[in-house]
Input
Amino acid sequence: MLALPFPALGEWVHDQQSIMGTEITATVWHEDAAQGKAAIAAVMAEMRRIDATYSPYIETSELAKLNASAAKQPVQLSSELSLLIDRSLHYSRLSGGAFDITFASIGWFYDYRGKKQPDAEQQKSLLPAINYHLLNYDPERRTLSYGHPNVRVDLGGIAKGYAVDRAIDILRRHGVAHASVSAGGDSRLLGDRRGRPWLIGIKNPRQKGPDDRDVVLTMPLNDVAVSTSGDYERYFVDEKTGERVHHIINPKTGRSAQGVISVTILGPRGIDTDALSTTVFVLGVQDGLALIDELADFDAVMIDAQGKVHYSKGLQAPTE
Ligand code: AMP
Ligand code: MG
Output
């Protein structure tokens, strides 16, 4: 065996797995590679737990059970689901309903892979069920009931950001100080890349092929959550109208939000940057940037339908 002059001082460990309908990646520095691997395994296990608890497609998930019963009677929530509902309602109020987890009342009937969308009749009858005011949420008792028989809730706009927060907590507990974790478009960075910043790229939303997408902007960042919402993640083109039908729904219309094609939000926690990326996508450039400029800890980069890039005030060069 080759004798090293110095003991190895640590190693980068990386893993990528398909969970929650997306790619989960984790890159971690640890003094002991085996412990680094164990830390990443704990992160992947947590991602699987979150998927099993909040996937609307898994009948035994807490969310699926909620959707099955809450229109009939109040349902007791776990403290974690309660936290996710609470935060979701916070962003609904902050955005005048642009963020609304009851979007799923219609959203449930979109099938992006099968290129299917609710017909005009369904749209009309289900639109009244998109309204966060129909969520009778009691934070003290931690109960939730739905005020309309057709209400459905989906946490797809907030759960991945929450998941990367959980990942970072787990890594910290494993003694990790430098890490990058992402769940699809939601990432969180812990520390730096050992003396260098992490580099986070914003993809070109109109480049063909998800894997070879160009990067329009690269940001050197540390210790931050970054969430991107794009109309290129899950979509199909309606052959009749030529319209891009994608997964971010404007709660006012029950249809895909138009005007913006990519929104990236920077902030301290993924639960907030995730919800805000979806919120700002629905709000559009003007109202979206106005909201971010009001919030002290957040910044935004948006690409509009013409390809123009817009920045929140915190990212603009100071004017004289
Ligand atoms: P993101 O991945 O953060 O871009 O969020 C998109 C996901 O959020 C969608 O796949 C839906 O699950 C969910 N979603 C779509 N529209 C809304 C909305 N208006 N409010 C809350 N969640 C939404
Ligand atoms: Mg989001």
About this structure: The pocket of adenosine monophosphate (ligand 1) is lined by residues 99-101, 103, 107, 154, 156-157, 185, 227, 229, 247-249, 251, 274, 277-278, 282 (CB under 6 Å). The first strand starts at residue 11 and ends at 19.
